[in-house]
Design brief:
The complex is a heterodimer. Chain A has a domain of about 45 residues. Chain A is about 15% helix and about 0% strand. Chain A is built from 2 helices and no strands. By secondary structure, chain B is mainly alpha-helical. Helices cover about 65% and strands about 0% of the residues of chain B. Chain B has 10 helices and 2 strands. A two-stranded antiparallel ribbon of chain B has the order 1-2. The longest helix of chain B is centred in the first third of the chain and has 34 residues. Chain B is globular. The model of chain B has no long low-confidence stretch (mean pLDDT about 90). The chains are: A mainly alpha, B mainly alpha. Chains A and B meet through α1 of A and α4, α5, α6 and α8 of B.
Chain lengths: ~90, ~300
């Protein structure tokens, strides 16, 4: 590796940390934790006792509607609309 | 083990069309023609086996870099890192596709992969420590050595389609090596905390083990003296491969000329002692020894 490139690399190590304290927020002191199964399937189906959606209900949580599908890329179990659904 | 498939084979799909664009070389083209009748069955079988193994290795790189990219998102790295990783992941898709296609062309069976071995478990104290160690290992060492090996494979290749395939890979590997060293240097920046310093010390202490891992993967356990005394590559027809000694030689020279000086420059002076611990010859010692004419 050329001296100029080595000097450039050495210079790059100087400066503010780019990942900073974020690493500490992702403590993996317990290695190889098994992945948690997603919760969305468990809550995607309304319980038998839940009231049926009204005739005016819409998928986007309109008047009287209850959104019953997960928001893409949201944490498992997070639902938009009825706050009581979140994290079920 | 699960065999790799190049295509979904479900008719004309948008995904296949986009994949075709990604899998094409970034410059030039590969003429996918091989007159099998001009080679012996043994030559074709050897070529298929070499490219089959290469396909599995490239797929492993694809899985690892994709995983690493996601971990960098979790650490909220600067966005330009995401862009660079997107390019690199695309490159690994291309390399896997090329290697699978070369295997097919030579009459080989598809490469197998073990899904359980694809992702690297997070074993560091923090995700930051894990990412830093992975970048140092997979890029500063792995991609640097890989680039050196592929450049030698390109020089050795005599079969036109193989030469085209290796050239497409070499173009990308050069970028990977440069990117890896930039990332490695940037990741060595400290935040002034004792925890960060400890992470650096732990990484430095792991260098002998990491070096030994790559030495063994490159078939270099017999040492540099043995490697340099052997032939680097077989003559024509050469399908873009080196001899075992050729790969081993690339390891030792790459470690001494690129990896160790680079690691020292980014703040890991322990790399020199770690190299000596696995049997590496320091520059002052190698200067006194006879050298082969061919460098990288």
């Amino acid at each position: 590796m050329k001296t100029t490139r080595l000097a450039k690399l050495a210079a790059l190590t100087q400066g503010a940390a780019l990942l900073g304290t974020l690493g500490a927020g992702c403590d993996k002191s317990v290695p190889n934790e098994p992945p948690q199964p997603p919760q969305v399937n468990a809550t995607a189906v309304p319980p038998a006792t839940a009231p049926a959606p009204t005739a005016t209900g819409t998928d986007d949580g309109g008047v009287g509607g209850r959104r019953r599908f997960p928001i893409l890329n949201a944490p498992p179990g997070a639902f938009q609309g009825d706050g009581n659904d979140a994290g079920k | 083990m699960i065999p790799l498939r190049r295509a979904t084979d479900a008719g004309a799909l948008e995904l296949a069309s986009e994949h075709g664009k990604i899998a094409a070389p970034r410059r030039g083209t590969i003429t996918w023609k091989l007159d099998a009748a001009t080679f012996t069955p043994a030559q074709l079988a050897a070529a298929a086996a070499a490219w089959r193994a290469r396909a599995a290795q490239e797929y492993h790189s694809l899985a690892l870099f994709t995983q690493l990219s996601g971990q960098l998102h979790q650490l909220v790295s600067p966005l330009d890192w995401a862009g660079a990783f997107a390019r690199m992941i695309a490159d690994e898709v291309r390399h896997t596709d090329i290697a699978l296609r070369m295997t097919e062309l030579c009459g080989g069976t598809p490469a197998d992969v073990d899904p359980a071995a694809l992702h690297l478990p997070v074993t560091g104290k923090t995700l930051r420590a894990h990412v830093r160690a992975t970048v140092i290992a997979a890029f500063c060492i792995g991609e640097t050595l890989s680039g050196r090996m592929f450049r030698r494979c390109l020089r050795a290749a005599t079969v036109p389609v193989a030469k085209g395939a290796v050239r497409a890979i070499v173009d990308d590997e050069t970028f990977h090596g440069r990117l890896g060293w930039e990332l490695g240097a940037l990741l060595m920046r400290g935040d002034g905390s004792a925890a960060c310093r400890r992470e650096r010390d732990v990484l430095a202490g792991q260098l002998p083990e990491i070096f030994a891992h790559y030495r063994d993967m490159c078939g270099a356990r017999r040492g540099e003296a043995w490697a340099t005394a052997q032939r680097e590559a077989d003559g024509a027809p050469n399908f873009g491969t080196l001899t075992d000694a050729g790969y081993a030689c690339a390891f030792w020279q790459g470690m001494r000329e690129d990896v160790v000086p680079g690691l020292v420059a980014i703040g890991l002076p322990e790399a020199s002692a770690a190299f000596a611990a696995i049997g590496g010859v320091t520059p002052s010692r190698v200067a006194a020894a006879p050298r082969r004419a061919r460098g990288s």
